[in-house]
Every structure is written in C-alpha cells, then in structure tokens.
C-alpha cells in the first residue's frame, strides 16, 4: 500500500477516526489498533512478509529482556550475537544471497572453473533493511546499557511495525520512539495542521517533482548510447532531484502521518543540496541512516580515535557498508566508496579553504557523479554515461515529451524556491506564514498543483526497493 495510492487514501482516515474517536481514552487500545493497522498495511504487499516481521519482533523482544537480566559478560555477548546473527542473517538471505552467488560464479568463471549453481527465486520483503536496523539498535543499546528493555509486548511490536515509517524509515531509535507508545496521546488541531502540511508538501515532492523527472530520466536510460553528453548530464542532474524528492517526500509524509496520531519522528532530510561540504551533506541527507552507521559501525570500529590514517580507513569501511546496504549490486558499493573517498579527501587531504560558491559547486557536482553509479543498472552502463559526458559525445539536448519536461522543470523551480526560503528566509515560509490568508492560499495552490500536474500511476518510492 503506497502513500500515493487510492487504497491509502481510504486506509488512513479509517485508522485515524477509530484511533481518536473510539479509542481516545485508552493508550493500550490505541497501541493494539495501531499494531493491527500496521500489520494490515504491511500485509497488503504480501501477507507472507508478516511472518518475518513477527519473528524478528519476537526474537528481539525476548533477547532484549534476557540481555537486561544476564549478569555474565559471556551470556550478554552470546545474546547480542544471536540478535545480530538472526537479523543480519535474514537480511543477507533475502537481499544478498543471489548477489553473493553471482559474484562467486563470476570469480570461478575467471579461473576457468564456472559453477553450475543457479539463482534462487527470492522475493525481497519490503522494508526489511529499515526495520532490521531499527530492531538491531534496540538490542545493541540494551547490551551497552544505554536502554532499558520494555516489557510491553504490544508497544514493542508496534514500535517495530509502525506503519508511517515501516517500509522506508526514518530509522528510529528505541530511546526516542518506544517511550511514545507508553504515554497518553493528546488530540490537537495544531498537530493535525502540522501533520497535514508535511504530508501535503511531501506528496508534492513525490508526484509533481520526483515522478515527473522520473519520466524523463527513465526515458533517457532506455537508450543510453544514443543520447548526447548534454542529455545525459541533464538526466543525472534531474535524477539528483528525483531521488531527493522521492525519498524526502516519503519521509515528510511519514513524519506528517505520525503526527496525526501524536507521534514525533526524527527529521530525515534538511535541504542537502545546499551543503557546501560533504560532511554537511551527510548531516542533511538520510539523517536517520547516516547517524545509525556513525553510532553502530563507524564509532565501534574505532572512529577517529586512532589517528588520521585509521580514521580514513574506518570512514571508507562505513561508507562501503552503507552503499552495500542500499542494494545487492556493485554500483551501490562504488557509490558508497566514492562518498567515502570524498569524505577522506575533504577531511584529511584537501584542507585549504575555497569560496562557498565553489565548495557548493564541487559538492553538488561530485554528488551527481556518484549518483550515476546509483542510478545505472550496471557498472558498465555507468561507465558508458561518464565516458560520453567527459568526452562530450553527441550534440543537442533531448527533451522527450516537451510538456512533461517543462512541467518537471516547473516543479523543480518551485522546490528550489521552497528550499531556498527554508534555508535562508525561514520566516517567509508560505505554508507556515503568520498571515492566515497566505497560509490558506499556499495550501490551495499546492493542492491545485498536485491534482493538475501530479503523476498518479502508483509509482513506488525508490527506497522501497532497499
């Protein structure tokens, strides 16, 4: 069930009204209702996925309680190992088994001894990468004695499966989200207004900007070799904003949806393309994932505590794992390695200062270069794109359907104007303006843009595949 689908437009009001009208005086009842709604929401894709998330929840709920009780170091390490092994084991099987098999086949083929192993038909459960990391952080924090385990099984199961952020984040920490299932939630019109505005802007980013730009980008990728360097350059600049609007749009809808039930999720994006350094970029892009990798990978393997050389290695390891998390393809690994390289060069090698405008141009340009590998189906396709761009092959600019192209550019212009105001003139935000007339006018105009220029073909959010 997609946020931009008719089914969700019926699902959300039903969940909302029963939650607030029928169950407003019972926290337990609200939690049970959210759990039922979340399992229904998740089972809408494939009911078989429910067994996996149920098993994962049971495992980490049980291990969390036993970790807290265990006094011996060996017992605690064993319990943590079980949690990591089971969760990562399922993730590796569903997401990476065929990748490892193909890589092994390729390696043996190079040695002249090809394997006869064939790929398995494995369906990747939606959201497994996200809820796996969310439950892992719960057991790791209990192991580190940073968190007390919950005994409320309904609250924990709902924490794992909470439908607004289940399939693509934000990846919440138990210390932030779990206590919200224990407190009494209060209905307020201000909360509904805030949530609705976030959802409205998120929907605009998705259907007006991301899905419009996607039509052009996908069209170009159908015949890469035939397009000029300028067309490929334009397509990848568009893709940079397509993936931003697709994922940030989802995150805003998720955050806004959670607000409707008086839950507060962490910010996941803060206008990343205004960053003037790669450090700043990663403090603005997919914040819940980047902080997760910092806290549970980078710092545990040493962080920057052992000198610049080791810190650089730790950065590279972290970013390569981050790339691999995104998908079972060498393109994602290269994407992660490029960002690791950018961070190392910026932090430890190129320490001289440049004007902000030059820094911005470098960061945005190199980020777009990395997006080539993220978008390309294969490394060879990515190299074809880069080779045609850097050698200026071909002439002219392909527009495709000019109406679609122009509508995409128009949506992109509105997005950039909005983000510029948010970044530099926050007091002038139209949706949050002090004048009611300006606020209501902005809402009406935004709804008109969504209904007139939005693409409503049930296109999935890009990060659902991860």
From TrEMBL:
It is found in: Cell membrane. The lineage of its organism: Bacteria, Pseudomonadati, Bacteroidota, Cytophagia, Cytophagales. GO terms for molecular function: acyltransferase activity. One of its GO terms (biological process) is alginic acid biosynthetic process. The chain crosses the membrane at residues 6-23, 51-67, 79-97, 117-136, 237-261, 315-337, 357-374, 395-417, 437-456. Belongs to the membrane-bound acyltransferase family. Pfam families: MBOAT. Its main location: membrane. Keywords: Acyltransferase, Cell membrane, Membrane, Transferase, Transmembrane, Transmembrane helix. This is Putative membrane protein involved in D-alanine export. It is a multi-pass membrane protein. InterPro entries: Ac/AlaTfrase_AlgI/DltB (IPR024194), AlgI (IPR028362), MB_O-acyltransferase (IPR051085), MBOAT_fam (IPR004299).
